[in-house]
UniProtKB/TrEMBL annotation:
Swiss-Prot/TrEMBL catalytic activity: a (3S)-3-hydroxyacyl-CoA + NAD(+) = a 3-oxoacyl-CoA + NADH + H(+)
Organism of derivation: Rhizobium mesoamericanum STM3625
Annotated ranges, domain 3-hydroxyacyl-CoA dehydrogenase NAD binding: 291-466
Domain of life: Bacteria
Protein name, entry field: Enoyl-CoA hydratase/isomerase/3-hydroxyacyl-CoA dehydrogenase
């Protein structure tokens, strides 16, 4: 049963119960259709209230059905059927009314919602446009400007904004069912508003479309759906209802089968699957009611901020009082900047700051549930910290390190109860970046691992389990990205050309400007450590830049020059000379964008295949999530391995062999070659 119909006097209450999110499956569409038919025929019914069980109103079309042929009743027909019902329907919204859910609500004559509801058309996030009249009815209700913003960004609006813009007719405080029934009954005494399909659209001038197109195109960075969605809203303002509906449906069907939509669906499901790894099924995490962070520098402050955002009380431990003050001041800056950007109110910022105790006293950690260490990247300093933690913390408290490159097993070599120890690798800035690499050691208990995943859920992070190796998953692939970028310079490309090509691929920044932003010194430090281990890291030009103290924007120059107070990268003569000098022995060639992209991305796929084979990552999807949420890989390409699958492994192997023959990349891994031969996309022996 997905639908229950009850009579409440002259109002029929139609309750959808289709867990987990009341998505509009074919069965539910049919039930709603049948309900509209039977209620129209019932002389005792004057009005209908549509409400949902569970955590949310209808969250949209059933995304699982997108891979299959559409089955009737089609959603646009269902929305039209509800709109034409002889008894007026009122949508009673709690949780979220999203996509097809909002489209059904737009078919209803009225909409009411609880104060915490959110309402939106997020289809562009799945690479599609609304397909059941969202772009056509919404501008008729709220005007083209807000409609254009909602469909092109996919960002939902709050109930308060929806009310102020006329998207909903009332906010119901208290019991939603009762409030909605009272509203529907009271509406029977008044003249009914016209159905949206019979209303006109307020006009906007032509300049609006021009400027909005430019804004949307620059935000979309290669994604097709946002501009197509804007085109649909424009059509709705310029054509009659039926023509605009046909245009929207055609656009929806075209995009639904597109590679971008498939990629975005892949990411949607991968993100949700990541929160519940099958290998942890049935393992209970420890409860997390308090947290501590050791070290209040760049990472520690960001981690403390994200813990506070999740409502946890935080103890911040530093090495001396001035450092405590600096740590608290770092946190204050994070909260103040969130206030400036309108993300939180000054009251929330004050409340978050007041929930942090800064101290040098480890004994305050005796009752804490989770402790995350973010001190200097130095094994001796970290060991000393864990020695102290091991002595004061409860034996069942989870102790975590945020190390980027050190071996967590060495850090934890001497701690008591090593089964409670784990790596939790946040990305900078930790209060913004979604990725959390979770790195168990051989001794980590399943409950500790499960607690890492539970913490990620609390912090709204995307957790990915990573095995121990130099750089875990993300930074190990990053090393290859950077080495390839330097190989390109030696072979005739310029830093600008490489950055531009990678931006055209969809990355927010090229590899060189990204290094200038983050600082070249961190990687130089890692290379020094690698050399001490007997390795020979490849970064001939970066080494030369670091020797000149060209560490990036913070030192006024790195791969590029920067004018004071200006972050625009400018070509550097010094760097050009260094490249020319280093490249003397290397054959030079011309590079187009596609060639540059292949020379960077395909070796990343090669490294990822090794990572999977070594079980440093357990699933190809995990690599996709690491690249998207840690490094800005374009979401609409589905992540590194989804891109590789679409590109074809045989083609990738052939291209890698060509690059290797020119000395421009490592040869393809055995595993990649075997995948190419078998035609199977399976990256384990
Ligand atoms: N279809 C099918 N399954 C869906 C779904 C959907 N539209 N939305 C969520 N789910 C599933 C998830 O995959 C997850 O399944 P799992 O438990 O097996 O992993 C489960 O529902 C719960 O989802 P979340 O973990 O995301 O639950 P939250 O409570 O954190 O969030 C939500 C709830 C805000 C509704 C969130 O799920 C969400 O944003 N969903 C997507 C909404 C969306 O994109 N709607 C538009 C769909 S396209 C459309 O409607 C086209 C139309 O115009 C024709
Ligand atoms: P940072 O230098 O900004 O901060 C380190 C802080 O630790 C300083 O405030 C210092 O006073 C404090 N500290 C040092 N010894 C201490 C001790 N014994 N007790 C208490 N506090 C102590 O360094 P950052 O960048 O925050 O890095 C911290 C850790 O996070 C490192 O392990 C680093 O590898 C890792 N990391 C860094 C990332 C980055 O982008 N900066 C990204 C992910 C991880």
């Amino acid at each position: 049963m997905t639908l229950i119909i009850e009579r409440k006097g002259d109002v029929a209450l139609v309750t959808i119960d289709n867990p987990p999110v009341n998505a509009l499956s074919q069965a539910l569409r049919q039930d709603l259709w049948d309900a509209a038919e039977s209620l129209d025929a019932d002389p005792l019914v004057g009005a209908v209230v549509l409400i949902c069980e569970g955590r949310t109103f209808i969250a949209g079309a059933d995304v699982i059905e997108f891979g299959k042929p559409p089955m009737p009743p089609h959603l646009p027909d269902l929305v039209a059927r509800i709109e034409m019902a002889t008894k007026p329907w009122t949508a009673a919204i709690h949780g979220s009314a999203l996509g097809g859910g909002l489209e059904v609500a737009l078919g209803c004559r009225f909409r009411v919602a609880v104060p915490k509801a959110s309402i939106g058309l997020p289809e562009v996030r799945l690479g599609i446009v609304p397909g059941a009249g969202g772009t056509v009815r919404l501008p008729r209700l709220v005007g083209p400007v807000l409609a254009a913003e909602m469909v092109t960004t996919g960002t939902p609006v709050t109930a308060q904004k929806a009310r102020s813009q006329g998207l909903i007719d009332a906010i119901i405080e208290g019991d939603l069912e009762k409030g909605a029934i009272d509203f529907a009954r009271a509406a029977l005494d008044q003249s009914l508003p016209l159905p949206l399909s019979q209303r006109g659209v307020p006009p906007v001038d032509a300049a609006f479309w021009e400027t909005t197109s430019k804004t949307v195109a620059s935000r979309a960075k290669g994604e097709d759906a946002p501009l197509r969605a804007l085109g649909c809203v424009r059509k709705a303002t310029e054509a009659d209802f039926e023509t605009a509906m046909a245009f929207e449906r055609q656009t929806f069907l075209e995009l639904r089968g597109s590679p971008q939509a498939a990629a975005l669906r892949h990411v949607f499901f991968a993100e949700r699957a990541a929160l519940r790894p099958p290998e942890l099924a049935g393992v209970e995490p420890r409860s997390i009611r308090s947290a501590a962070v050791i070290g209040g520098g760049t990472m520690g402050a960001g981690i403390a901020a994200t813990l506070r955002e999740a409502g946890l009380p935080v103890t911040l431990v530093e090495r001396d009082e001035p450092a405590v003050d600096r740590g608290l001041s770092n946190l204050r800056s994070i909260f103040e900047s969130a206030v400036k950007r309108g993300k939180i109110s000054p009251e929330t910022a004050a409340e978050r700051l007041s929930g942090i105790v800064g101290t040098t006293d480890y004994s305050l950690l005796a009752r804490i549930d989770v402790v995350i260490e973010a001190v200097f990247e130095d094994v001796d300093v970290k060991r000393e910290v864990f020695g102290k933690l091991s002595a004061v913390c409860r034996p069942d408290a989870v102790l975590a390190t945020n190390t980027s490159y050190l071996d967590p097993q060495q850090i934890a070599a001497h701690i008591k109860c090593p089964e409670r120890f784990i790596g939790l690798h946040f990305f900078s800035p930790a209060h913004v970046m979604k990725l959390l690499e979770i790195v168990p050691t051989a001794k980590t208990a399943p409950a500790t691992l499960a607690t890492g995943f539970a913490l990620a859920r609390m912090l709204s992070k995307i957790p990915v389990r990573a095995g121990i190796c130099d750089g875990f998953i993300g930074n190990r692939i990053l090393k290859v990205t950077r080495a390839q970028a330097e190989r390109l310079l030696l072979a005739g490309a310029t830093p600008q050309a490489v950055d531009q090509a990678m931006r055209s691929f969809g990355l927010p920044m090229g590899p060189f400007e990204a290094q200038d932003l983050g600082g070249l010194d961190i990687a130089a430090f890692q290379r020094k450590a690698a050399r001490a281990r007997g390795e020979t890291p490849f970064a001939p030009i970066a080494e030369r830049l670091c020797a000149l103290e060209r560490f990036g924007q913070k030192s006024g120059g790195g791969w590029f020059d920067y004018a004071k107070g200006d972050r625009t990268p400018k070509q550097s003569e010094v760097v050009a000379d260094i490249i020319a000098g280093e490249a003397r022995e290397t054959p030079q060639r011309a590079w187009d964008q596609a060639g540059i992209i292949d020379c960077v991305v395909l070796p990343m796929v090669n490294e990822a295949s090794k990572i999977l084979n070594e079980k440093v990552a357990l699933r190809a999807e995990d690599i996709d999530l690491v690249e998207i949420h840690g490094y800005g890989f374009p979401r609409w390409r589905g992540g590194l391995m989804h891109y590789a699958e679409g590109r074809g492994i045989a083609d990738i192997v052939a291209s890698l062999e060509e690059l290797a023959a020119e000395g421009l990349a490592e040869p393809p891994s055995d595993l990649l070659c075997r995948c190419a031969k078998s035609g199977q996309f399976v990256f384990t022996d």
